[in-house]
Amino acid sequence: MTVSTAYLPPVSWCRATVAVGELVLEGHEHYQKGSWRNRCEIAGPNGRQLLSIPLVKGKNNKMPIRDVRIAYDEPWQRQHWRTIRTAYGNAPFFEHYSHELASFYEKKYNFLFDFNFELIEFVLLQKMKWPGRIRITDTWQPFKPHTSVTSPRYPQVFEDKNGFLSDLSVIDLLMCAGKNGLDYLG
Question: What is the total count of domains within the chain?
Fold first, then answer.
C-alpha cells in the first residue's frame, strides 16, 4: 500500500499499512500543506493537541517531498518533547521508550522525509515489532487516502477526563499499549 509520509502518523494510517504487510512511502510526491506530513495529534490533559514541525519558508507546496527542509529558527524540538513528556509521562510504557524517543528530538534532521521515515521505523519496526517491511517508491505512484480505515479503541491516558480520542498519533498507541499496540492495528 502506497501512502504519503507522516509525522508520527495517525493510528488509522498505521492500521491501513500494517494490514497489507508492506508499507510503501511515496517519495516522489510534492509536499501538500495542511496534511499529516509535518503534523500530528496527541492526547493532552485537556484533549487533542496538535504538534506541527516548522518548515523552511518557500514554495513547499510545489516542492518534492524529499526536498522539504525542517526549520530550526525556534526550539520546536524542545517544545514537542516537553509536550510529549507532559502528555505521556504517566502512560504505562513511557519509561520503556522515552529515552530512545527523546533522541529524535535532540538530533537535527535536515529533511522532513528523513525525520518521518526514521520515526516510523522506530515505532512500527523496532518497538511494535511489526514483521512487515518499509520501502520508498522509485518513481511517483498515485495513492488514495486511507479514509475508510477506522482507529481501534484502546486504553488512553486521559480517557477518564476526555473520553476516547480516536485516530491520534501512533505515539499515543505506543505509550499506552507498548509493543502490544500492534495487536490493535491488526
Answer: 1
